[in-house]
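Before relying on records like the one below, remember that each one covers exactly one chain. Contacts with other chains, cofactors or solvent are not represented anywhere in the record.
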Amino acid sequence: MTAIHMDHDADYPADYLADILRSVKTIAMVGASSDPTKFSYGVLRVLSETGYDMIPVNPREAGTEIRGLPVVASLEEIERPIDMVEVFRASSALMGIAHEAIGVGAMVLWSQIGVVDKEAARLAEDAGLKVVMNRCPKIELFRPFWKPRLGLKI
């Protein structure tokens, strides 16, 4: 397996992001929240409604449900393959989550806007995971549709 090291300060190639969003089915969202005012709640809702198999991960809400989806305390508790680990936590938590994502055999580690740790990215990439940092999959999912229409440079 050859490690792919991305420049996480540059724009990701559109085909890199599109390939990830096309290929993943099961997404574990670390830092999911049942609070509808939180950004993670809206992202969970949209990704779930788009057809992704979403698994909320939050130790404080474990045993409850978010939008009808059972919340687990950790990645290790998930009893099915995880394609992508999406991180809604502080950057300082990303290294530990990268280790966990590697441990459960995830294919992708994706951190939300504002969540960056280049050492964690390198660790995950060296283990064969694709990594996206400081991006929102909900935004990227719809970018091909709205960007050209709005004539915006993103």
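The longest strand covers residues 26-30.
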